[in-house]
Amino acid sequence: MTHTVEKIGGTSMSRVNELRDTLIIGNRKGADLYGRIFVVSAFGGITDLLLEHKKSGKAGVYAAFASSDSDHGWHEALDRVSDAMVAAHKAVLDHPGDIERADAFVHDRILGARNCLIDLQRLCTYGHFRLSEHMLQTRELLSGLGEAHSAFVTALMLQRAGVNARFVDLSGWRDEGDVSLDERIEGAMKDIDPAAEMPIVTGYAQCAEGLMREFDRGYSEVTFSRLASMTGAREAIIHKEFHLSSADPKLVGQDAVRKLGRTNYDVADQLSNLGMEAIHPKAAKTLRQSGVPLRVTNAFEPEDPGTLIDDQPADGPNVEIVTGLDLFALELFEQDMVGAKGYDSAVLDILTRHNVRIVSKVSNANTVTHYVDSSLKVLRRVEKDLVERYPSARVTSRAISMVAAVGRDLNGLAVLSRGLNALADNGLEAIGATQGPRPVDVQFIVEREVMQPAIKALHHALIENSDSGLLKAA
């Protein structure tokens, strides 16, 4: 256990030339350069162009290929990917020879993907084959292009700087056979000595399990965690472009936020549920079961140790973070629900069928309310199915936000009552509030337009004031 496995995200990858001189090399020389395995994401924005934009949903190559009635849409989208890849590596590479090799790499991979999609399209003109049956494999093929490009470019850049870096391609490009994720990693790493060379590994790994089937765009963290577990890493490190802090510094102020410093996997799971992923929950589970601690750092402050995430309990009760998420409240009201069974399970079945993520829920004698993370379009389909299932029920939905106070141990802090008072003191009203028996989070439901002021009010009352000794366990 002498090495670390470290992941660099897409936004940070777009400045990998800066990271070369600080995070990756810095003042290290000789043997001190090694004992580190880097897992890299695609350069910022590339995966959006390959698949679809993560936030806006704007179509990339995958979406254009899936819906296009002609060749033109996805071909043009693939050309845009090629141009963006070339621009990305020209921004970080200095040597003309390295740029030439990177250009050739992009040309080869894009041409190969284009020919594959053309052949698939042609094959599916025959009645025996359905394009829909091959879309998952198509999504995987396209995803792997981004990470393969960034890993190849990073290895080139480091080799030019005198580092014995090796490009490790887990994307299965032109490989024969179908192997498991463990077999893919084991085969790629078997001849590599991290003590003498620096592996630069693709965040995407092609395998029989199909990472995108379960994890979609969270696949790079799954690869990262499995690699750390299988190689017996001393520590798994995620380098982000910010510290894991008590709130968004842009919202509450740089001087007001506190770097977490230390927390546990339980808090990481709560943050993931609220859309603020420190790490994908399944990746966290792998590290947790393997006994590998996780560290989250700011990639551009390499001297700062960041935040350590392990299984250790807190030294004492404390609110560690306040965050929020825009959601919809889906409400089913049925007067005949009192004493009857099955309503809740029926709602769950319909939400599952439409692949709607449930963040939280509350219920009383005749009402079940689910707070869901969904698009309005999908939610309308859910409402339609619920009305068909329960014609006499009243089904409604409304846009709301959830603001949560999270910590390893909230015992004795009266977070619920203090939080409600803090909102009221700032002229804000909570639509609802929930606190479960496990003292790890308290959720406040507010109107969307007051989410940001609610986060500021709760952070000031529950975290900033606690620094001054004003908030203590009862």
From TrEMBL:
UniProt keyword annotations, A-Z: ATP-binding, Kinase, Nucleotide-binding, Transferase
Domain Aspartate/glutamate/uridylate kinase: 4-298
Residues annotated as transmembrane: none
CDD domains in alphabetical order: AAK_AK-Ectoine (cd04248), ACT_AK-Ectoine_1 (cd04910)
GO molecular function: aspartate kinase activity; ATP binding
One GO CC annotation: cytosol
Primary enzyme class: transferase
E.C. number: 2.7.2.4
An annotated GO BP: homoserine biosynthetic process
Keyword Amino-acid biosynthesis annotated: no
InterPro entries on file: AceGlu_kinase-like_sf, ACT-like_dom_sf, AK-Ectoine, Asp/Glu/Uridylate_kinase
Domain of life according to the entry: Bacteria
Reactions catalysed, as given in the entry: L-aspartate + ATP = 4-phospho-L-aspartate + ADP
One Pfam assignment: AA_kinase
Similarity comment: Belongs to the aspartokinase family.
Name of the protein: aspartate kinase
Native source species: Paracoccus alkanivorans
Lineage, broadest ranks: Bacteria, Pseudomonadati, Pseudomonadota, Alphaproteobacteria, Rhodobacterales
